[in-house]
Specification:
- The structure holds two protein chains of two kinds.
- Chain A is α/β, with parallel strands linked by helices.
- Chain A has helices at 19-28, 50-59, 79-97, 114-131, and strands at 10-15, 37-42, 63-68, 104-108.
- In chain A, strands 2-1-3-4 form a four-stranded parallel beta sheet, sandwiched between helices.
- In chain A, helix 1 (19-28) packs across helix 4 (114-131).
- Chain B has helices spanning 15-20, 26-36, 62-66, 94-105, 127-138, 169-174, 181-184, 219-230, 241-265, 271-282, 290-294, 305-308, 320-328, 338-342, 349-363, 377-382; strands spanning 7-12, 42-50, 53-59, 88-92, 115-119, 145-151, 154-159, 164-168, 196-199, 212-216, 234-238.
- In chain B, the strands form two sheets. Chain B has an eight-stranded mixed beta sheet with strand order 3-2-4-5-9-10-1-11.
- In chain B, a hairpin with a 2-residue loop joins strand 6 (145-151) and strand 7.
- In chain B, helix 2 (26-36) crosses helix 8 (219-230).
- Classes of the chains: A alpha/beta, B alpha/beta.
- The interface between A and B is medium-sized, with 24 and 29 residues.
- The complex binds flavin-adenine dinucleotide, iron/sulfur cluster (SF4) (3 copies) and FE2/S2 (inorganic) cluster.
- Residues 76, 93-95, 121, 123-124, 182-183, 186, 188, 336-337 of chain B line the site of one iron/sulfur cluster (SF4).
Chain lengths: 142, 383
């Protein structure tokens, strides 16, 4: 039996009001993107705790995307500014741990930016494909 | 009249306290007076069991305070947590004082009602290492030790039969003994973050060995000293220019040594090898949670993220518990060494944590536990 080609598993945290809409628009607009993305909807990017990101990696994600509304557009005033601060610490921490920087991204995507969402997923997928599976992926998880 | 910024040399008026004290018994006398005069309700001190064992106690008994004289270099506990929810006065190494302030920032210690008598600190040793060192390097039975002292870079032990043996600390550390790793790269040697900064550096002439150098750091320090003078428990006089210069000189030598050792203790690990390094280091972790329990800057109770979202049955490559802690302590870790000290699997957890917290703090020009002008950095950035 030949091995199926490996595609990176990407966990994308999307906020209800913007980036989740962006993911939806990408689908409706039929922009090509790999099917291996797992979208997790949260009410606001500010809800994304570093703990959720750790959990995604420990369960086998090859990359994790933290996404939300553009700065100024957050539906809870400044949730995404808090996300930005938390993200800084998270990014530094995972880099020190030795995780390749390309496996973690922060991006602001509005509900109408379907193409932007699809391009983002495609870019990350291509980069992570080169890196191979995440070193934190548990044995037995593809 | 005592003022903020004063540099004084003083001692306990009680001869017994003065002679038993580490340098002049001033610290003990100040603590006792704070209790006697009602400045505080309790005092935290070390209750001696032997040279290598002591337990922190919270007491309202002046006699117990007076009995607690002397510096224990082989009992590296951190005293901050004993101040929680109390109105206390306490002795504090620089790292004790740092932890008190970090807890203060997080609302766990009421700083207005906590009096911190700082002790200079050249470093402390792990009791188990010290006992092993006595046997291997000094050829002394730990049971026979009655006293210990640091003089001119040498560590001296005195035994029951009146003998003394001195070995250079450098030599001990090269052989893998001596100060704890965290103390080797610690660069806060004078507790400028306490209310008073006391020590024996700068005590010269016929005062050497029986007086304490004391710098008044703030208004609470003024209160502590004036209270002890009024109670007739201490006598102080201004320190001479020479004494002040000597103290500053020794301090700067120690600070430089700490910075040099930091480079040795933390060699660079290339990006692509770091993950493997951390995984190997933490491989033997038995999930006992002792490193969290003992951490003096952790302000979480039992229901904390690192423990609640970590399950023993998860067969993850790295434990969620450690990942959360590495992140959460990146602003507050003071590299006090408590976590390494208690780890039953001998994981150098302080060194691992410091690889995260030191760069993170430096990048933001943030030193934990120094003063209240610098709130936890998450808060600062949002403003
Ligand atoms: C680990 C350690 C290292 C030190 N290194 C230096 C140094 O390099 N240079 C210098 O100038 N001074 C140093 N000191 C301070 C010095 O030894 C004296 O404590 C100081 O001069 C005050 O003297 P005193 O006679 O007034 O103290 P005392 O009246 O004898 O009171 C000492 C107080 O310290 C408390 N104490 C004892 N052991 C500890 C401990 N391990 N942790 C916290 N509290 C403790 C006791 O409970 C007591 O309240 C060190 C102290 C310690 C504990
Ligand atoms: S970490 Fe620093 S302040 Fe704390 S015991 Fe060690 S040398 Fe002293
Ligand atoms: S993580 Fe360890 S070294 Fe850092 S403050 Fe806590 S106990 Fe001390
Ligand atoms: S003290 Fe050591 S064994 Fe216990 S949880 Fe911490 S690292 Fe693991
Ligand atoms: S609602 Fe989208 S980031 Fe806050």
């Amino acid at each position: 039996m030949t091995e199926r080609e490996w595609t990176p598993k990407i966990v994308a945290f999307c906020c209800n009001w913007c980036s989740y809409g962006g993911a939806d628009t990408a689908g409706m607009g039929r922009f090509q993107q790999p099917a291996s993305t797992r979208v997790i909807r949260v009410m606001c990017s500010g809800r994304i705790d570093p703990l959720h990101v750790f959990n995604a990696f420990l369960e086998g994600a090859d990359a994790v995307l933290v996404t939300g509304c553009h700065i100024g557009d957050c539906h809870y005033v400044n949730g995404n500014e808090k996300t930005q601060v938390k993200y800084q610490f998270l990014e530094e921490m995972l880099q020190q741990l030795g995780l390749e920087p390309d496996r973690l991204h922060l991006n602001w995507i509005s509900a109408s930016e379907g193409e932007r969402f699809a391009n983002f997923i495609n870019e990350v997928t291509a980069k992570v494909k080169e890196l191979g599976p995440s070193p934190l992926k548990p044995a037995g998880v593809r | 009249m005592v003022k903020v910024g004063d540099m004084l040399v003083g001692y306990a008026t009680d001869e017994n306290v003065r002679s038993r004290g580490a340098s002049g018994g001033l610290v003990t006398a100040v603590l006792a007076a704070a209790l006697e005069k009602g400045l505080v309700e309790n005092v935290v001190v070390m209750k001696h069991i032997n040279e290598f064992e002591a337990v922190p106690i919270v007491t309202d008994n002046v006699e117990e305070v007076l009995a607690s004289t002397g510096s224990l270099h082989s009992v590296p506990v951190n005293l901050a947590k004993y101040a929680m929810g109390r109105k206390v006065a306490m002795p504090a190494k620089p790292c004790d004082a740092q932890a008190v302030i970090e807890q203060g920032k997080r609302g766990m210690i009421d700083l207005d009602n906590t009096y911190v008598v700082g002790l200079n600190c050249g470093g402390s040793m792990h009791p188990v290492t010290t006992k092993k060192m006595l046997v291997e390097m000094y050829d002394i039975d730990p049971e026979d030790v009655v006293g210990e002292e640091i003089e001119k870079g040498k560590l001296i032990f005195k035994t029951k039969n009146g003998e003394e043996k001195a070995i250079a600390i450098d030599e001990l550390e090269e052989a893998g003994f001596g100060r704890r790793e965290s103390c080797r790269f610690c660069t806060l040697k004078i507790p400028v973050n306490a209310d008073l900064a006391c020590g024996n550096w700068g005590v010269i002439g016929d005062m050497a060995g029986n007086a304490t150098f004391c710098q008044v750091m703030n208004e609470k320090g003024v209160k502590l000293l004036e209270n002890a003078i009024e109670a007739g428990r201490i006598e102080v006089q201004p320190a001479s220019e020479k004494a002040i210069a000597i103290r500053a000189k020794v301090n700067s030598v120690m600070e430089d040594l700490g910075s040099t050792l930091e480079k040795e203790i933390f060699p660079d690990i290339p990006d692509e090898e770091r993950m493997q390094y951390y995984m190997e280091q933490m491989e033997d972790c038995i999930d006992c949670g002792a490193c969290k329990e003992v951490c003096p800057v952790c302000a979480c109770g039992e229901d904390s993220k690192c423990t609640m979202f970590h399950s023993l049955v998860d067969n993850y490559k790295m434990s969620m518990y450690h990942m959360v802690r590495l992140l959460h302590l990146s602003d507050s870790c003071i590299a006090c060494g408590q976590c390494s000290d208690v780890c039953p699997s001998d994981i150098p957890i302080t060194l691992l944590q410091s690889r995260f917290s030191i760069p993170s703090q430096r990048r933001r020009n943030y030193q934990p536990g120094i003063n209240l002008d610098t709130p936890p950095f998450f808060e600062v950035i949002l403003k």
